[in-house]
Write a structure and sequence with these properties.
The chain is mainly beta. It has two domains: 4-85, Immunoglobulin-like; 95-177, Immunoglobulins (Immunoglobulin-like, Sandwich). It contains no helices and 14 strands. The chain has strands at residues 4-6, 13-16, 26-34, 42-47, 52-55, 63-72, 80-85, 95-99, 106-111, 117-126, 133-138, 143-146, 154-163, 168-176. The chain has a four-stranded antiparallel beta sheet, with no helix packed on it. Strand 3 and strand 4 form a beta hairpin. This is VWA1 protein.
Length: 181
């Protein structure tokens, strides 16, 4: 029954703590900082009625020192502390699959799809060559059909995940269209 974290992701976690105060008897000061860089300490004030708080915009694969300081006008409560380590950044795409290849189209799918991705950009163009076309797909989707292709041609297909953080991750695959009629 102490301060602890749940729902830990690469960039956030939720803190839970026992009810020590009420709205009337005070508030909490929450301090958190990466253990290897305590100078980057951030502070939040939380209502005495609250027993949870989500911290977000955190750095992946980082251990945070968290201190909850009850500021009571009735009793002294010692600060509660905990350490929480965020997860590694989920990286997508880790697989690009080409299927249903015909003379003028093929199907591109990728995995995994993640909440942290806003959109996927699919770049494709014939090899060898430098005429590249771009398709943009919503981050909820994990496949698309590329059409209007030349038959019996090898294409380089690159799927780029665009994260909410602005980060991008790409993975390429080769696809061949079938011979035409």
């Amino acid at each position: 029954n102490r301060l602890h974290a749940v729902d830990i992701t690469s960039s956030s976690f939720r803190l839970l703590w026992p009810k020590l105060l009420s709205q009337e008897t005070g508030y909490y000061t929450l301090e958190y900082a990466p253990t290897d860089d305590l100078a980057k300490k951030r502070t939040k004030q939380v209502s005495g009625a609250d027993t949870s708080l989500t911290l977000s915009n955190l750095v992946p694969e980082t251990t945070y020192e968290v201190a909850l300081i009850p500021e009571s006008n009735v009793h002294y409560f010692p600060p509660q502390t905990t350490r929480v380590t965020t997860l590694a950044e989920e990286i997508s795409p880790v697989q690009v699959l080409i299927s249903e290849s015909g003379p003028h189209s093929f199907h591109v799918s990728w995995a995994p799809t993640l909440d942290s991705v806003i959109s996927y950009q699919i770049l494709y163009g014939p090899l060898p060559g430098n005429s590249v076309k771009l398709l943009e797909v919503d981050g909820q989707h994990n496949s698309t059909v590329v059409e209007n292709l030349a038959p019996n041609t090898t294409y380089l297909v690159t799927v780029t995940a665009v994260y909410k953080s602005g980060m991008e991750k790409s993975l390429s695959a080769k696809a061949c269209t079938q011979e035409g009629e």
